[in-house]
Fold this sequence. Notes:
alpha/beta, 5-stranded mixed beta sheet, 5-stranded antiparallel beta sheet, 19 helices, about 50% helix, about 15% strand
Amino acid sequence: MRLRDLLQADQLALKVLTGHDLLDRRVRGVATTDLPDPAMFVKTGELVLTELTWHTGPDSSRDFVTRLGDVAALVAGTALKVPPADLIDACAEAGLPLLTLPVDVPFSQVTEHVLRALIAELGTPPRPAYAARRRLASTLVDGGSLTKLVTAVAGELDVPCWVLSPTGRVIVGSQPLGAAARLRLAHTFLTARFLPGMVTQEDGTALSVFPVSKGAPHRIANWFLAYAGEQVQGENEDLIVELAALVALERSRLEAAQRIERRVLDQLLTLLESGDAALPGVVSRLHTLHVETEHGLLAVALSARLDGGGDEVAVPVLDELLRPLAPGIVTATGAAGAVALVPLAGNTAEELTAHLLRSARTLEAGLGQGRITLGVSSVTTGPAALSSLIEEARHALTLAALSGDRVSVITGDDVSSHRTLLAAIPGELRRAFRSRLLGRLESYDAANQTDLLETLQAYLEQSGSWAATAERLHVHVNTLRYRMRRIEELTGRSLNSWDERVDFMLALRMR
């Protein structure tokens, strides 16, 4: 198809800003990107869609357009009526057609239109495998679900097939997949030097891993395919590539719908930060977002610092971490990363925090030298305290970043406890303090198969009660007294001193 054909599609309402004499260019595909350097993720002849989030000024426009290479055209979707003037100038100088898309037309609609046209141009395919690929594409563009698409591929390949997130969550699958297999697949996807990759299960069977989108800013923000057996070759490999492209299309369709809601949350955050947030306006936006405060509400802030990108993955990562507990949650870009408002219907704050930490740690394998930090506010039951709730989550996020851990979570309750002080101490100093107080106990336990460290922790957690500690450890009080004397001998400290007890408790909580 040609650019001119796109302009004739009334439902897209595309307008030409530059390149009026270049509308006979052929469109050979579609790519969506908001990376400042799109060169690796676009191909010659593609229609490139962008939200302009990369734009920071004239230099960024010139760099972006230069790195696009020989694409068919650039389509700017933006809430602004007209793209920045410097982008228009850069496209005109480069001889690149620049089109604009109304804010109410999602990118997925443009992608579907182009896909339909390209499929129609192909005519009758000459090979059976190509016929299968065309049936898959038709399944999706004709309104078929992602489940039907994956089931269709599983049928064509005659093997089970799944789409998973990097935390190991099954998005869709042709049959159930065990938790252990999901985690092994996620770990392989996150750590493999090259993809496709392969996992060997405990029973000796193989599962293959294939990325959904090569244009994702980081693996922790991507989806991936998994299917039984070793990596397919030949025509079946083309089928997997086609499936990955169609799954990426479906994900972009879902994200297009979420962008509208994120704009509402962005408006709410801006309103709250301005200090002029009237309660009716706050309540109205909460209702638009379907966020209820009746059973409690808390705020979560996330920051991602990664070698291959950071802030651009914060929103999809936080969305992924929260989705199993809050399927309809909306996440938006905040001042320090990503922010979400989470209703607590059916969950406690402790359960949500534990889930966040557990899920974030599944991503740790893919962080390299990067970090993920999370701040979780305390709970409120009314919209009036929303501004302080978000501020508390951001304050907790700042404290979490001080810990030095690759994955760390600080809650609103932690902010008012000694855990805040521990988080502010550099990791090297914390480890040195712990080693100085507990190092000899750890070595003694390892060499003699004893439990002195566990005994010390139980004693302190039972506030120094001999009877309660002995009962908890299921030992006689005399046995406990012998252990405590041995702890004092090895450490050179007295557990009768309150200051010494505090030091030991802090050391036990340092990692």
